[in-house]
């Protein structure tokens, strides 16, 4: 067991389970957008980076990709409720079909703000794909068009998700042991 694995209380989704689900999501997305003239897939840094890299390789359409940085959680496991764009996309989104890729929807504040902004920028459509969702924590209603897994209200790490910037490189999604932050 390595240093990171000692801080994992329980593995929720193995890398095989995650890959199988991503294959299904990729197929669904490819089918849904097959008649669209263009698709711009935007990854929300840094949490979605691992999911994003695997997901786009399961989409069988000629997509464009971009990345955005949005600050929500600082070094804590409690949401600030504030959303700030720290790195924007480098392209116009007017009349483009936009699909956001996020690691987890918790309160829903981050993505509802970002998606609202992209509607105002004149995107042809704005949809959301998230690896995980914690519905028990939701503060604003937000439709998740493509969802990997629903999880209970526990702090999770791995497969891109961090606690204080660590554990992103774990190959699976696991629950963080409380001993790390209590
Ligand atoms: P929301 O605006 O509350 O939906 O926050 C979403 C963001 O909070 C995600 O992009 C994550 O960066 C972070 N987050 C929420 N829950 C967790 C968790 O259990 N582990 C790691 N990051 C989380
Ligand atoms: Mg994030």
Description:
By secondary structure, the chain is an alpha/beta fold. Helix content is 21%, strand content 29%. The protein has 3 helices and 9 strands, in the order βαβαβββαββββ. The chain has helices spanning 15-32, 49-56, 109-120, and strands at 8-13, 40-45, 64-71, 84-87, 97-105, 125-133, 146-150, 156-157, 173-176. Strands 4-3-2-5-6-7 form a 6-stranded mixed beta sheet. A 3-stranded antiparallel beta sheet has the order 1-9-8. Strand 5, helix 3 (109-120) and strand 6 form a beta-alpha-beta unit. Helix 1 packs across helix 2. The protein is globular and about 50 Å long. The chain starts with 7 loop residues before the first strand and ends in a 6-residue tail after the last strand. The model has no long low-confidence stretch (mean pLDDT 94). Bound molecules: inosinic acid and magnesium ion. Magnesium ion binds at residues 44, 47, 103.
How many individual helices? 3
Radius of gyration: 16 Å
- Write down how many β-strands occur, each being a DSSP E stretch of 2 or more residues: 9
As a percent range, the share of helical residues equals: 10-25%
Low-confidence stretches: none
| Beta fraction | 25-35%
What do the pLDDT scores average to? 94
Q: What summary fits the major beta sheet?
A: 6 strands, mixed
Question: Quaternary status of these chains?
Answer: single chain
Distinct ligands: inosinic acid, magnesium ion
The secondary-structure element order is EHEHEEEHEEEE
Chain-wise SSE layout:
Blueprint: E1 8-13, H1 15-32, E2 40-45, H2 49-56, E3 64-71, E4 84-87, E5 97-105, H3 109-120, E6 125-133, E7 146-150, E8 156-157, E9 173-176
Parallel strand pairs: 2-3, 2-5, 5-6, 6-7
Antiparallel strand pairs: 1-9, 3-4, 8-9
Helix pairs in contact: 1-2
This protein binds inosinic acid and magnesium ion (MG).
